[in-house]
Amino acid sequence: MARRLRMLKRRRAFHLRRVMLAAGLWMKLRKRRRCAPRQNPSSPLHATRKADAMDDVEDVMEGAPSDDEIEQLPRGPVRSRRPPSRVVKATAEGKPFDEGEVQCGPKPRKIVLLRSVFEGRPPVVLFSYTQACCAEQRPMDRAVPADEDGPRMFYSHTDAVHQYNAVINILRHGGLYRVRAETNRWTVMWSLHPTPEQLRRFTPVQRANHFPGSFHLGRKDLIWRNLAKMQQRFGKEYQISPQGYILPKAFLAWDAARLRQPEALWIWKPCSQSCGRGITVFSSDVPEDQLRELSKKRGIVQRYIPNPLLIGGRKFDMRVYVVVVSYDPLKVYVNDEGLVRFATEPYSDSVDTLQSRMMHLTNYSVNKQSPAFVQNLDGQGAEDKEDAAIDEAGQPKASKWSLTELKIHFEREGLNFGAMWESMKDLVIKTLISVEEPLKAEWCKTLGCEDGGWSARGPGGAQRSSCYEIYGFDILVDETLKPWLLEVNICPSLSSGSPLDKRIKTKLVADVLTLVGVHPPTALWQLSPDSVHWPVTGSLPIMDENEAASGCLLSEEEMAKRARRIVPWHGGQVQASCESPADALSLFDDIAWELCVVAHEEDMRSGGLMRAFPCPHAARYAHYWDEESYCNIVLRKWQEAGGGAIFRSKKLPPWVPRQVCFNKT
Ligand code: ADP
């Protein structure tokens, strides 16, 4: 009996140990999963995320408060943003928090609002720069603190993407708390592409950082397919990316091109990889066994650009950050700062060197492994910032530069940076126009509204400006200063591995979130409405956040009708220049003016992001669309007529709000 009892006890202890072991392991796994991005190897984004995770190791999370406990708080009506009094007392006395206490962090997060430049229009949340990123703060004269007793605002950052400190720090610094996506209480979502279920639940004020289907831009084969279509229609003016062939389908066409051009060099890339993985460079003289392999392997083979512009004998490429606020109207901003990435070995176009990845590939992930790689300390320690980039031998001192450093170098060498930059913007606009059609189709498909165009709306209020996207354009400049598009990253790395990366990327995230316009609930300023509204002189009613965020509610047919009123159509085609801009403005209705007001508000809070489209010469691009949309026509005409300057005119129709502040933030 005693023996049986002993055995039973031993068995129970054994089971208990197993259960505890499993629980411990599960907790560890859970913790790890929270920190690491979930990766699906078949996803086109897989490679980008893998790269991002690798680059972020040296970054430090700022600000003590953790978001996780906020997620655990019970749902309920609007809560005060003040932390429980016990917490305040404990912090004030410098004592540790009690166990079991709701820890909202040592300080409550503060939301700062940015007044509109127009009267009667609601503010947006201002995302200022963290001190640690060392970026010069933007002008804060339109900034107003939100009511401390107002409701909290939330963001959702899912595990599907890498958690960049630049993103998390800016969201926290902006005063937002984290919740799970399923709660739907968030205003800002940072994740992968929204699923149909998610998008259908979006309210008008919710903003997500991806458009459905932007892999049409991010996959090397798909973007080439879209650009090739445009090249076929428009010829030389669309030669913005090196000639490509999608293998194995276009193997015969490439083989013929290779035989026609025996002197050419080629580069083969897998379609959905990044960081230089799997890339090979070779001449037209390909051995039989390699040809056989190429005829079966999935990837893209491209003309290799043999004459890149060199600095100190080294090849480099540019990472340019581009933000699309919406595709219809097409609103594109280019960040004034970006990265220049150098190869670590001096360049040669001799076929004997083609195996050298550190000579021919400029990826950070390839070159950081070289002993010659030098981190950029962002001018820290340099006596004269202007001299920080080049050493006495004319070599770049660091393996990464900022675009500002490149600009200074161009000016010193007598190279025309301005002209190169304009061609680069032209390349960006053409690339984005080439993918607009497939993205529109994805938008409709995701919302289950096949013919709705960009006017398709979700049942919860999702609309054309619910999504925005940050793209990393990789651009190579050749020795004639022509920029060539190499690829577009739809999840560009936002890692802060060096002081330079930290400054540029943290500022970029803050500027993007302020630009796209996160609308706070009215309750955040209802205690002090005068602080966010200029004294109203006109007869216009004050708009609430839902009205401001809802955008243009017209159907596609209605918009086509209105477009015809502004510019005459001939044979179904809008004629780009048959109406004077001033005449067109006189035909603008309230919806048209609303589009211009929103675009101007964005310009006035764009920080370091510079508008690339619509631009005063937008008419040059009108014929690239099968049919230029109403929204695009309106903004083009507004730009041609003078853009933001026309809001200074006293003769505007009564439904146009008065611009009362002229300071850009
Ligand atoms: P990945 O997504 O793997 O980074 P990229 O297309 O950006 O692939 O190419 C990696 C690097 O190879 C680029 O940074 C550039 O230095 C070089 N490269 C790519 N395409 C070309 C090309 N057509 N001509 C010259 N160099 C190229």
Overview of the structural elements:
With 665 residues, this protein is of the alpha+beta class. 34% of the residues lie in helices and 14% in strands. It is built from 21 helices and 21 strands. Strands 12, 13, 14, 15, 16, 17, 18 and 21 form an 8-stranded antiparallel sheet that branches. Strands 5-4-6-7 form a 4-stranded parallel sheet. A hairpin with a 2-residue loop joins strand 19 (569-570) and strand 20 (573-574). Helix 18 packs parallel to helix 21 (630-640) and helix 20 (590-603) crosses helix 21 (630-640). It is globular. The N and C termini lie far apart (83 Å). The structure holds adenosine-5'-diphosphate (ADP). Residues 242, 267, 269, 273-277, 279, 302, 304-305, 317, 361-363, 474, 476, 486-487 line the site of adenosine-5'-diphosphate (ADP).
Based on Cα principal axes, name the global outline. globular
> What radius of gyration results from the CA coordinates?
27 Å
- Share in helix: 25-40%
Major sheet size, sense and barrel closure: 8 strands, antiparallel
Structural class: alpha+beta
Strand content: 5-15%
- How confident overall, as mean pLDDT? 84
Any ligands, ions or cofactors bound here, and which?
Answer: adenosine-5'-diphosphate
Straight-line N-to-C gap: 83 Å
Q: What ranges have pLDDT less than 50 throughout 5 or more consecutive residues? A: 28-105, 381-387
- The count of strands amounts to 21
- State the oligomer: single chain
H/I helix tally: 21
Region (Disordered): 33-90
Keywords: ATP-binding, Ligase, Nucleotide-binding
Biased composition (Acidic residues): 54-71
Catalytic activity: L-glutamyl-[protein] + L-glutamate + ATP = gamma-L-glutamyl-L-glutamyl-[protein] + ADP + phosphate + H(+)
